[in-house]
Amino acid sequence: MIKKIPMRTCISCKQCKPKKDLIRIVKNNDDFLLDKSGKLNGRGAYICNNQECIEKLIKNKLLNKTFKQNISQDVYDKIKESFFE
Ligand SMILES: [Zn+2]
């Protein structure tokens, strides 16, 4: 039997990868959280669990495009912080 692996696209490098290799970024009202537990509710975007993709996300402010809104630098700083903690 072939097991179906859920795949998602990274918003940073645009590669399609197994969901378990990605981290979800969840929109929570006007806040954005790095969902390391995979348990948060809300609209989410997926990103690779690697430094390169996180840095590209922050540098190019990719969440603005994904969520179609202006997201402050603070939010990006917080995402970066929680990735490295
Ligand atoms: Zn990626």
Structure description:
The protein is of the alpha+beta class and 85 residues long. It has helices spanning 51-59, 62-67, 73-84, and strands at 7-9, 16-18, 22-28, 31-35, 43-48. It has a three-stranded antiparallel beta sheet with strand order 4-3-5. A two-stranded antiparallel ribbon has the order 1-2. The radius of gyration is 13 Å and the shape is globular. The relative contact order is 0.20. The mean pLDDT is 93. The structure holds zinc ion.
Listed once per kind, the bound small molecules are: zinc ion
CATH architecture group name? 2-Layer Sandwich
Topology, number of strands: 5
What do we call the CATH topology? Hypothetical Cytosolic Protein, Chain: A
Helix content bin: 25-40%
In total, the number of domains comes to: 1
Beginning-to-end CA distance, first to last residue: 39 Å
* Rg (C-alpha, Å): 13 Å
Uncertain runs with pLDDT below 50, 5 residues or more?
Answer: none
Question: What would the principal axes of the Cα set say about the shape?
Answer: globular
Order of helices and strands: EEEEEHHH
> Looking across the biggest beta sheet, what order are the strands in?
4-3-5
Largest sheet: 3 strands, antiparallel
Q: Total helix count?
A: 3
State the CATH class: Alpha Beta
Rounded mean pLDDT score? 93
Class inferred from helices and paired strands: alpha+beta
Q: How large is the share of residues in beta strands?
A: 25-35%
CATH superfamily: YlxR-like
